[in-house]
Amino acid sequence: MKKLFVIVLLTTSISSVAQNLFGKNPFKNQQDWDKQRIHYGYFIGFSSYNFKINYTEEYLKLHGSNEIIVNSETGFNVGLVGNLRIMEYIDLRFEPGLYYNKRTLFYPHITNPNLANRDVASTYINFPLLLKFSALRTGNIRPYVVGGLSQSLNLSSNATSREDNYEGTFRMKKWTTNYEIGLGIDFYFQHFKFTPSIRGVFGLQDELIRDNNASSPWTGNIESMKTRAILINFTFH
Description:
It is a single chain. The chain is mainly beta. The chain has one domain: Porin (Beta Barrel). It has two helices and nine strands. Strands 1, 2, 3, 4, 5, 6, 7, 8 and 9 form a nine-stranded antiparallel beta sheet that branches. Strand 2 (about 70-85) and strand 3 form a beta hairpin. The two termini are about 40 Å apart. Keywords: Signal. InterPro entries: Beta-barrel_OMP_2. This is Porin family protein.
């Protein structure tokens, strides 16, 4: 009987929440929320970082489609949100955050298995400045698209290290510039606003620091290496 009571209670609660959010005539929560000039929040989430690699002509002639393989692990994100209302449907957002991730590079043209892999662990502090374009609110739901520029500081870049891949150290530049585009949905609850979102990050600059030997098998054949990432964030206001 206790289990049945708990199931009925949970079902009733979920049904009530769903009715408030998605019903035909839902009660509008936080009706004046979007009229605030400035408001703040925080986010947590997951990310997957990759590289877009362009090769020199010499590499393509020698190895053809035998390209470097990038294996990505799912990382985590955490950060803050500052929102400035510009007009009814446009907001300016600043979302500084910490992004930790790991990528492993496999070089198929390097025959020694002990040298063919390079782990690239990155800890980014990201500083995006974004414009948010919101649709008309329907009940307790409001979708939006977002886009803008960001600067990323890589705390694990090894940029100042004198050692390179010959000593097992993969080096990247400390600062990079990106553009970001994404979309999300604002859900208005009684006491807070919850926003799941997905965003793409596209690096604009080459991040690779070449090895001291210009003929290095790890960096000598790479023309540019730029970050590509997918961010999934859950924001609470």
